[in-house]
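Input (structure):
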């Protein structure tokens, strides 16, 4: 028997983040909690909202959320960025790896656009 999911179901997974996320964090280590993303491992943060997350067809099946590029983010702490995290005031929604780059407090960081993909059931 084949498996399937309506795009509305897959979009719902991404829309929770789209509707609630308000901060993108550049982190030195993979955070497992919101506090780790925003405080413990945080090197830089930038405010985001629903206009920074675009949900669309995933191309090879499924759906994707494109997180828009962010530029001119003031770096708060010295360290090497290794992860990006999306949070709201309470939750850690998503963590991904990113290109390793040494950051110096007071300088500026640019984050290119990137995607989160939810695949069709296999």
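Output (sequence):
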């Amino acid at each position: 028997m084949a498996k399937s999911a309506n795009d509305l179901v897959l979009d719902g997974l991404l829309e929770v983040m789209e509707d609630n996320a308000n901060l993108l964090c550049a982190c030195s280590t993979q955070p497992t909690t919101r506090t780790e993303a925003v405080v413990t491992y945080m090197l830089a943060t930038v405010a985001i909202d629903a206009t920074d997350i675009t949900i669309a067809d995933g191309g090879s099946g499924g759906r994707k959320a494109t997180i828009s590029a962010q530029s001119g983010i003031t770096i708060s702490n010295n360290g090497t960025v290794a992860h990006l995290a999306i949070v709201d005031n309470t939750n850690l929604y998503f963590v991904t790896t990113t290109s390793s780059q040494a950051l110096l407090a007071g300088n500026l960081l640019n984050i290119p656009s990137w995607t989160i993909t939810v695949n069709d059931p296999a």
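Notes: The CA atoms of residues 22 and 49 lie 5 Å apart. DSSP finds two helices and nine strands in the chain.
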